[in-house]
Structures are given as structure tokens and as C-alpha cells.
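Run log, item B.
One chain of 159 residues. Sequence copied directly from the ordering sheet:
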Amino acid sequence: MTLRFDVALEADVPRLHAALARLSQVLGDTHRAGEGDLRRAGFGAHPAFRAVLASDGETTHGVALYSPSFSTSRGGVVVYVSDLWVDAALRGSGLGPRLLAAVLRDAQACWGAGRMKLNVYHATPRARAFYERLGFTPAEAQTEMHLDEAGCTALKDTR
């Protein structure tokens, strides 16, 4: 099978959404982002993400969704991979590393990214082992913090 790795265009939103919905299903996550959300966030005047689709024609076998993050402590742009999905039938085939390599090449060309980061669920030890084999290491001395919509609403009105 010959796979193509293409940066997603707005016309690819249905395929992108379907692949991300499959990832949510595999992880047992609630899937809140619809096609309209992806269009608005990824293909407007100020895109918040980019994505790479791995496919053989019309069948999508993998996807990676990513965005830039500037780190003063790292001294540059770090590409953050928020979503990575490989079809179960192709896991172990090398598609995951190839998707991440395509992300890195695009992030270097777009933003000059020299580093990559991602999160891995505690409930997915096989995924963590996969990332560790590629050389990813856990962050030390920091905890990821979240502010929900209600908190953002309250913060927005702070003067």
C-alpha cells in the first residue's frame, strides 16, 4: 500500500473530522468538535491548527493535528501534537512515526519548529511506550493546567 501524507485543506474537513472522531472513540473521549468547528479553527484568517492526513486515495488511515507553541525556556517554536490517530489495522507498520515526521517537516517549514511535544493518556500504556521508543520523555517539574469555559468567561472580565 502506498500512502500519501498531505497537509489538510478545507475540502478535507469531512475526512479530518471522521478520523478525529475515530480517535475519540478509541480513547473513550467525548467528541465535541464538529466539522464547522474544524473549519472555523483551522481554515479561517488565523488558523489555530494544521493537520496531516495519511491516505491511499480516498481511505484515511491516519491523522495528526498540531499547532505551534513558542517557548522562551526552549528558545523557539515547539510543535504541539494534540491528536494522533492510526487505523488499528496499520498500527505497528511504521505509520505513526511517518505521520510525526510529516508533522515535523511541515512545522519546521511553517514556524521553524525545532522541538515537538504531546500528551499521552495514563490509560494508554502502549501509546506511551510507542512515544518513548521514538525518544519522547516525560516533562519534569511541571503539571498541565486547564481552565474551563466558565473560568475563561470569568477571567475575560478581569480588569
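Observations after the first pass:
- The first strand starts at residue 4 and ends at 7.
- The chain has one domain: 4-156.
Flagged for discussion on Thursday.
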